[in-house]
Amino acid sequence: MPRQVSIPCTLMRGGTSKGPYFRMDDIPQNAEVRAQVLLAAMGSPDARQIDGLGGSDTLTSKVALVGPSSREGVDVDYLFAQVSVDQAIVDTSPSCGNMLAGVGPFAIETGMVPIQGDKTSVVIYDVNTQSRIEAIVDTSDGAVNYEGATAIDGVPGTAAEIRLNFMDIVGSKTGALFPTGLPVEEIEGVRVTLIDVAVPMMIFRAMDLGKTGYESSAELDADRAFFARMEAMRLDAGRRMGLGDVTGRVVPKMAMLAAPRNGGSVAARYFVPHKTHAAFAVTGALCVSSCVMAPGTVAEGIAKRPDGDDCTVWIEHPSGLIDVAMTTRVNGNGIDIISGGVIRTARKLMEGHVFVPSWILETRTAA
C-alpha cells in the first residue's frame, strides 16, 4: 500500500461554513476509522490545521458525507461531522444546516440526482437528526448554477438561491419540543428554555448573564469566565434533556437573546458551543425562531413575535440577519411547529483528492 491514500472529495462553501464533501462509500463506515480519516484530512488536532484542509476555525472544520438513499421518498442521505480544530474529536451528534446547503448541488454534480429542469428538488435525509429536508437547487442552464443575485449575511458577494425546507424538525434528538415539558426553567439561578427543533438548545436572555446581547463574537470569546459559566449550565441542561453527560460533545448548543435593534424579530448570539458563531447556524436559527414563536419561553417580552401561522422570523446576529420562514399552528395554550425554511447559497471551490496516511486505512481490517 502506498504511504498515502487518496480519497475523492469536493471542497465547497455551504452557507456560512466550508469543508470537504465526500461520497459516503469513499469513507470507512467504522466510526473510529472514519474519525481518524477525517482528523487527518482536516489537519486536526492542531490549532493551525497546517497539515490538512481545515481553516483553523469551527466554521471551516466541517465535513459532509453524502450517499444515495434507500429510504422511500428520499434522494440522498447526509451525515455531518464537526471536526474539532485542536482536539482529536469528531462529533456526528449535531447537524449543520449551512453545510446542508451544499448537499443538493453536490448530489447533482456527482450524478446521485438527475436534473429536473430549471429547478431541481433534492430530498435529503439528515442522518444526524433523522429528519428530511428538501433542497431546491437552481439548474436553469442544465447544470448546477452557482451564480445569482442572492446575498446572505456572513458571505461576501452574491450567488444562486438554494431553498431549504425543513420537515420533521421537532425533537431532533429528544423527541419533544420541550424535552423537560417546561417552556422555562432555572439552571443555576438563570431562566432558560430547553428546546429541541433541528438541534437541542439551551436558550437564555443575555441580561441574565451580564451581557447586552449585542457584543461581537471576538468580545464574547475573550470572556472565558462567561464561557465557563455557560458550560456548567450546558452540562446540566444536557442531563435534563435526556442527553446524558455532554462533556466533550457539541450538543446541546446555546444561544442568548436580546431585544432587536436593527429591524429584526430578535437579536441573538449562537455558541457552538465553546466559541461564538461568526454569523448564525441554520439549525440554530430554526430552533431560536421556534423559541420566538412558542408562548412562555425566555423570548417572550423581548422578541417581536410575527403574526400569523405562516410568517418570517428575522434574527439579528454578528454578521447581519438571517430569516426563517416558519409554519406553525396554535395547539391549545401551546404551539405546533410544522416546518421551517431558509434561503442559503453555496459554491463549489475545488474538486480532486485529499491524501491521508495509509496506516489509518490499514486499521479498517482490524476494526
3D structure, described in words:
By secondary structure, the chain is an alpha+beta fold. The protein folds into two domains: 4-167 and 346-361, Roll (Diaminopimelate Epimerase, Chain A, domain 1), CATH 3.10.310.10; 185-331, Diaminopimelate Epimerase, Chain A, domain 1 (Roll), CATH 3.10.310.10. 18% of the residues lie in helices and 35% in strands. It has helices at residues 31-42, 97-100, 103-109, 217-221, 224-240, 282-293, 358-366; strands spanning 4-14, 17-23, 62-68, 76-83, 90-91, 119-126, 131-138, 162-167, 185-187, 190-197, 199-205, 253-258, 266-271, 310-317, 320-331, 334-344, 346-357. It has a 17-stranded mixed beta sheet that branches. Strand 2, helix 1 and strand 3 form a beta-alpha-beta unit.
State the end-to-end CA separation. Answer: 18 Å
Low-confidence stretches: none
Instruction: Provide the structure class.
Output: alpha+beta
What is the level 1 CATH name of the largest domain?
Alpha Beta
CATH superfamily of the largest domain: Diaminopimelate Epimerase, Chain A, domain 1
What is the level-2 CATH architecture name of the largest domain?
A: Roll
Biggest sheet descriptor = 17 strands, mixed
| Average pLDDT | 95
> Number of DSSP strands?
17
List key phrases describing it:
single chain; 367 residues; alpha+beta; Diaminopimelate Epimerase, Chain A, domain 1; 2 domains; 17-stranded mixed β-sheet; 7 helices; 17 strands; 35% strand; globular; 4-oxalomesaconate tautomerase; OMA_tautomer-like
Summarize the structure.
Pfam families: PrpF (PF04303). The protein has helices at 31-42, 97-100, 103-109, 217-221, 224-240, 282-293, 358-366; strands spanning 4-14, 17-23, 62-68, 76-83, 90-91, 119-126, 131-138, 162-167, 185-187, 190-197, 199-205, 253-258, 266-271, 310-317, 320-331, 334-344, 346-357. It is of the alpha+beta class.
